[in-house]
Structure formats: C-alpha cells, structure tokens
Hints:
Helix content: 25-40%
Distance between the termini: 5 Å
Radius of gyration: 20 Å
CATH class: Alpha Beta
Number of domains: 1
Number of helices: 8
Order of helices and strands: EHEHEEEHEEHEHEEHHH
CATH superfamily: Vaccinia Virus protein VP39
Mean pLDDT: 94
Shape: globular
CATH architecture: 3-Layer(aba) Sandwich
CATH topology: Rossmann fold
Amino acid sequence: MLEAAFPLAELFDTPLPRLKVVDVGALPLDGHIEIYQGLLDRALCDVVAFEPDQALCDRLNAEGDGSRTFLPYFIGDGAPATFRLCRAPMTSSLYEPNTALLEKFQNLSELVEVVSREPVDTVRLDELEAVKGADFLKLDVQGAEHAVIEGAATVLESVAVVHTEVEFVPLYKDQPLFAEVDQALRGKGFQFHKFLGFAGRAFKPTMVPDEPNALVSQMLWSEAVYVRDFMALEALSPARLLKMAMILHEVYGSVDLALLCLREWDQKTGSKVAMEYQARLATGAA
C-alpha cells in the first residue's frame, strides 16, 4: 500500500497556494473533526461556512481564529422552504422526515423527530460573493445536497473536489438520493472518486447488544467524494491541477490520483515535482 505521511509542501521551493473551502452544513459538534481539518492545521486553507442561526454564527466568528468565516444563510436552490428543527440538531432539514421508514430502524425516528417548523428563504451559492473562487466544496445538509448543487453551477466551475453526504434510501420525504446527486455532479464535470465509510441501522427488532446505532445489513447513507474528470486532466489549468493534488494528498491520501495531477502539472509548468513525489511514495510503500 502506498502511503503519504509527508506534507506536500516539502516538495516545493515556494509556498503552496491557499485553498478556499466552502462548507455547507457546518454545525459544530463536540468531538467532531472536519474533513478539511488537516488543511487548517497546515495553514493551507480559509473556510467559508454557513450557520443560519444568527446568534450562533456571531459567536462562532467571535471565538474563531479568522481561518473560518461563518455566514447566516440557509443554502439551497433559492426558493422559499420550511426548516424542520429536529430533536437531534444534526438531523434538522429542509425536508420532512420520512417517519414511516425511519421507524423501521433502531434509534432513527427518535433522533429525527421534528420539534419545530419555520418558513425560511434559501440562498443559492451562486448569489454569494464570498464563495466565488471556491476550490473544495463540502455538503452535509440532510437531503438538500442536490438543491445546493443545482444552485451552485457557477461556483462549481472553480471547484476541484466535492465532498458530499449521500443517502441510499429516502430518510426524508421526496429527497434526491445518491443516484440524483451523482448525475447532477457528473453533469457539471465531476467524476465519482470514493465513498468514506457507510452508515446504517439494524431493522427492528434486531439490535446489536449495547450498540443501537450499529449497522447490521442495511446501508442508509455515506459520504461521497467527487473530483474533476480524471479523463480530462489536460483541460485543467495548472492552478486547478495543483489544488486538486493538494486536496487529494492532504485530505484523502489519494496519492495515485494526486500523482496524475502532478504529472499533468509538470507537463504544463516544466517542473519535475511528480518524479520526486513518486519517489517519496515508493520509499514509504509496504
């Protein structure tokens, strides 16, 4: 197995470009580590995140170190919507929970019980100046990912990697599932890259002892990673190729695809970084 324990910056004589990360669905949770935390730790990115609660948004901005900016918007397709606040805030959604389905599984309907409903206006990412030039888009909005993608056609033109939650069954009524999200992203020039784990629950009455959240057989959701079409890397600018390589290397350990990006980057810039990268990988191969 190839490993990449070294920072990509070690291969460059000049500082790497700073990435812009857009995080739609940035609810702070105790103990939760964001997928892009490594980029923050190495001072490789700035983050624009969204928290619709104005008071919480203000507090997060006041307490932060400036690397993350929180904006108070409900991101979607720009249409009026209803926000369902659920018992577990992380399950709150612009979609109505599919209670009949949720009740078939252990410890789901209890978490996704609606405690209040509020009419809201959604904003398309394409309307916001702050997200222009995004390199990395992360989506986790409980069924509304497809709506965010459809409202971000212009923003996605600069994006190298998309990280999105996807569902395989309708946990929320009428929500677009993985197939629709996949089609939407492929239609905007992205290719599927990988899943990061699978989540599910046991069908009632089966339950793993002392583990109500354990997956037994039914996969319900996952996190999917999409990249710019790797069959057309030659069409990407040197800047986009380097940023895609940075994200693949630092966030996902996808060293094989990062190498392809760096090889194409070398072709366009006359550099020899890919050769050194490949040599570094070889010394760490098991």
